C-alpha cells in the first residue's frame, strides 16, 4: 500500500490526505505543549483520549445542528474530517475569568463573568497568537463582518452545548478555544467548527472540588494529565472500549 501523504504536522496532531477529495485524516499525537511550545512532554494515551473526546463533542454538535468537520472515527488515534480552509483565528469563549484574561485584567481565576464573552486571537505561533480586536480581523481581511457574526453565533451555541454536557458530568466549563473553517458548496461558503474540542483546548473544573481536569494540569504541574483526561472521558461515558471493565453477562 502506498504511504499516505502527510499534509501538516502540528504540535498535537498530524494531518494526512484522506481517502477521498475534500477529506483529511487527523492523527492525535501524545505530545503536550504549553507556553507556545516552550514546555513539551509526551504523555502516554493523551492522543487516544482526545480523539475520543473530540469525536464525542463534534458528534453532539452535529446532532444539534452546529456544523463541524467531523465525519467518522477511523481508529484509536485517527478520525476522518472534512478538509476546510482554516480561518486564522483562535475563537475563545469565556464563562469565568482564567488564564490570560485573569492576568490581563487582574481578575481572580474562577470569577463569574457578566455573560459569556467571545474573543479572538490571530493564529501565528511566531507572534504568540496575539489577542486581536474585530477591527483588525475585518481590516486585514482574515474574516468578513458577516463571517464574524456567524462565528460568534456558532461559538455561543457551542458554549451552551459544552456547558450543558459538562454540567451533567459535574464539571464547570470555564473557557475554551475553537477554530472555524470554510467549506465551499457550489457558489456558497459555509463556516464549520474544525480542529478539535478536547481538554487540551478547554478549562474544566470539577464543580464540587474545583480540581482542574484540563491542560492546566500540565501547564502548572498539578499531577497526571492523562488521569485528568481519563476522568473527563469516564464521566462522559466515552472511555475507549478496550480500557473499560468487561460488562457482566446476565444469565437467567
Ligand atoms: N478540517 C480541517 N481542515 C484543514 N486544516 C485543519 C482542519 N482541522 C484542523 N486543521 C488545522 O490542522 C492543524 C492541527 O494541528 P495541531 O493542532 O497539532 O496544530 P498546532 O501545532 O496547534 O498549530 P496551529 O498553530 O496551526 O494550530 C492546525 O493548524 C489546524 O488549524
Ligand atoms: Mg492546535
UniProtKB/TrEMBL annotation:
InterPro entries: SAICAR_synt/ADE2_N (IPR028923), SAICAR_synt_PurC (IPR033934), SAICAR_synth (IPR001636), SAICAR_synthetase (IPR050089), SAICAR_synthetase_CS (IPR018236). Its EC number is 6.3.2.6. Coiled coil: none annotated. One of its GO terms (biological process) is 'de novo' IMP biosynthetic process. One of its GO terms (cellular component) is cytosol. It catalyses: 5-amino-1-(5-phospho-D-ribosyl)imidazole-4-carboxylate + L-aspartate + ATP = (2S)-2-[5-amino-1-(5-phospho-beta-D-ribosyl)imidazole-4-carboxamido]succinate + ADP + phosphate + 2 H(+). One of its GO terms (molecular function) is phosphoribosylaminoimidazolesuccinocarboxamide synthase activity. Residues 6-235 form the SAICAR synthetase/ADE2 N-terminal domain. SUPFAM superfamilies: SAICAR synthase-like. Keywords: ATP-binding, Ligase, Nucleotide-binding, Purine biosynthesis. Pathway: Purine metabolism; IMP biosynthesis via de novo pathway; 5-amino-1-(5-phospho-D-ribosyl)imidazole-4-carboxamide from 5-amino-1-(5-phospho-D-ribosyl)imidazole-4-carboxylate: step 1/2. Belongs to the SAICAR synthetase family. NCBIfam families: purC. This is Phosphoribosylaminoimidazole-succinocarboxamide synthase. It comes from Actibacterium atlanticum.
